[in-house]
Amino acid sequence: MIDNPKLLQLKEELLQQTKTSDSPQTILRSDKLRQAMADIRNIDPAKRGEYGKQLNQLKQELSSVAEARQAELEQVDLKPIDVTAPMDINCQVPQLLPSSEGSRHPITQEIEKISQIFERMGYVVEESREIDDQYHMFESLNFPKDHPARDDYDTFMTEDVDKNGDRLIAPAHTSTMQNRILRKYIDNLERGEPIASIVPDRVFRNEDLDARHEHTFYQVEGVYVAKGVNVGNLISTLQEFLQEYYGQKLDVRVNPFYFPFTEPSFEFALSCPFCAGDNSNCKVCSGEGWVELLGCGLINPNVLKSAGIDPSQYSGFAFGCGIDRLIMMKYQIEDIRYLESAKLDFLKQF
Ligand code: PHE
User: Fold this and answer.
1) Whose CA is nearest to atom 4 of ligand 1?
2) d(Cα 112, Cα 324) in Å, to the nearest integer?
């Protein structure tokens, strides 16, 4: 039962809005609700569980009211058809299936689970974009012009250019959002609060396609900045997230790596959740017992500086993890291309 006074008030306000809204689903993504989720980190740890439970209940109630409202909006009186009338008269109402007959895509479902785990850890969720500029893809991430590492990302370029004459691009990783997140939440640091945000969104790479490579896929970026953040914080955050996501204890392995925007940088592997190295035929890890999952590291001081943050006072970590990979491992999906394929036989299993 919801008895937290703040949540009760929020519930009344949002329910009222949902019942009269023309796009009720947008209320489920309202800033107030996000704020209520972000507030979790300010709550006394002993009361956090109860607050979280009540917040979830509130979301469920809102979501069923939003669904009912949506169904109400979709009920339109069809006029009898005059077959000789111009096209637009007979086609006033788009003949779409009502949303109650469809289901959500597995990627959407899993992004929601991933977001909820991070929200419980005090992170806010941000969205990326599908066209970006080279400043966010490279310069702000400490890739100087003509740096060879720019070629490691098989970036799709458009013919259009930005105000500097550089081609616009389809972002090849969610790290394009690091600079924006740091700038957006920089005031948190003044207040003694961390910057803590994730970005689960689409990315694009000009790759040859096969069962493990797709030109369009999803990543979740994580950015955390505060005073005295260290590699231990990074590893334990990722381990905690992955254990929650897979619902079991997992070992992790960290190897040195190189990214221009983190220093030190690591490649992060997970003990195989299916065979833990006991099955030499395991489809998920090919019997190696480990699965390389993501890149991460401590944010390079130049990246902090380009967002106006003083690296002598603050430090942070960032990570970027392939969401399709996570999902494929969770459900033992053998071909990444199924996820973007609109194959109904596949999608109906979720
Ligand atoms: N953006 C990197 C990639 O896509 C991953 C990464 C993110 C590495 C954040 C370090 C920090 O390969």
Assistant:
1) 173
2) 13
- Of 292, 323, 137, give the one whose Cα is nearest residue 222: 323
Residue boundaries of the structural domains of the chain: 1-74, 106-347
Tens-digit pLDDT string for the chain (350 aa) = 888 998 999 999 999 999 888 889 888 888 888 898 888 888 898 988 999 999 999 999 999 999 999 888 887 665 666 666 666 666 666 666 777 778 889 999 999 999 999 999 999 999 999 999 999 999 999 998 888 878 778 899 999 998 889 999 999 999 999 999 999 999 999 999 999 999 999 999 998 888 888 999 999 999 999 999 999 999 999 999 999 999 999 999 999 999 999 999 999 999 988 887 778 888 778 888 898 999 999 999 999 999 999 999 999 999 999 999 999 999 988 889 999 988 888 998 88
The CATH-assigned architecture of domain 106-347 is 2-Layer Sandwich (3.30)
Q: What is the distance in A from the centroid of ligand 1 to the CA of 173? A: 7
Which residue, 122, 114, 108, is CA-closest to 245? Answer: 114
Distance, CA 295 to ligand 1 centroid (Å)? Answer: 5
Q: Kindly list the protein residues whose Cβ atom lies closer than 6 A to any atom of ligand 1.
A: 173, 175, 259, 262, 265, 295-297, 318-320
Q: Atom 12 of ligand 1 has which residue's CA nearest to it?
A: 295
Output the CA–CA distances (angstroms, integers) from residue 64 to 61, 289, 319, in the order listed.
5, 43, 35
